Please model this.
Amino acid sequence: MKPLFSHHITSRRGLVKQFLRGFLGFVLLGTAQVSMATPDASADAFIKRLTDELLVTVKADKSILSGDINKISALVDQRVMPHVNFQRMTASAVGPGWRQATPEQQKRLQEEFKALLVRTYAGAVNQVNDQTIVVKPLRASPDDKEVIVRTEVRGKGDPTQLDYRVEKAPDAPAGWRIYNLNVLGVWLVDNYRTQFAAEINAKGVDGLIASLAERNKTNRAAGK
Amino acid sequence: MKRWFAPLQMFVCVTSLLLAGCATGPNANPKDPLEPMNRSISRFNDVLDDNVLKPVATGYKNNVPDLVQTGVRNVFNNLSDIWSTVNNGLQLKGRDTVESLARVVVNTTVGIYGLFDVASHLNLERHPEDFGQTLGYWGMPSGPYVVLPLFGPSSVRDGVSTFSVDMPNDLVRQIDHAPTRYATTGLRLVNRRASLLGASNMLEGASIDKYAFTRDAYFQYRRSQIYDGNPPEEEDPDTSQVAPPR
Model:
């Protein structure tokens, strides 16, 4: 018999859990009952405000805590999406194939990718307990159009790194939009790129749409 | 002491790499020339997990009191902080070395052999480091992706580091009393798996190809670890393609 895992495997296994926690932070972020009537002056203020108000909401809502997937999905849709540049996220994940796609295909890609992520976030909400989110000091100049906001999700165990790429968006409710999310050093949009490119190479854009749709169907059936 | 295991494991590792060299697929990803073999090993690992590890970990999680689970986790974290201290030192990170050492000292004494994580309450943060990170820090590239049987995602650099440096220095392996050593190793494994229950579904639900998702996340994650969470930015290919209206 030999030890099956060594030290750095610890952190690698821990990765998945922390990844989930990170997702959770994103859900929390989105489900906040925030009325973004006035734009936020800075990106970190935007993230901080969303974060603070959302934690209160989620912790108070029993149906979210008990994992009512439909309700959570609706909330994510309603609250996150106004603050996310989803077209940019999808285009970036799809990569060069995006420009080959017809407007109709782009629309379908966006719908399916969104459904995939919303469902994933909704699943992660089940893990809500006593997390808090700390927004770290911003290292950007005030007139930057795109900045990285670094935060940390703290709960049981090691803190989880959770960063956002945020762009200035005058038409957005808060004046900012999120276009990428980093959980523990892993940029989420980037992480889909290879998979999506492989799918497009093998089966074309419609093949990717079909695979995403299939994944969503399986997830819905499994109640995830 | 089971030192003789180290060369054996090295041998197994290297041999499987050589064997796999022949198994390169037609559309090989440059970071993953061993993809066909890696996929097979991933499937093997998944089957093993579904049938053995996951059920045991579920039982542990549902039946063992939370207080005990926390204590177990803390003890193993404390052990790994010792190794982190060494690797922070090897990377000449003065502050992180001192903090890691302070964590071990505080948790081993005041925290009673690591049962209580007193250090975290004193704002002494963990700085997990392993030898693969140390090599990466000094500039060694990761090499191709490798999925190790039982161990999961790794790379040539990280896999060889694990077997030839991290494992021979694993304190649990230094336990002379064999039954204790086995039990401790098993408990550590269950402790890890238990912390992931509920998380593993997400990985499957979030990806259209779990294998590729895991692989790409592994490389990003290790790169981030090597740069202590602040890797230099890579170019963002989407920005030029779909410039949002300005």
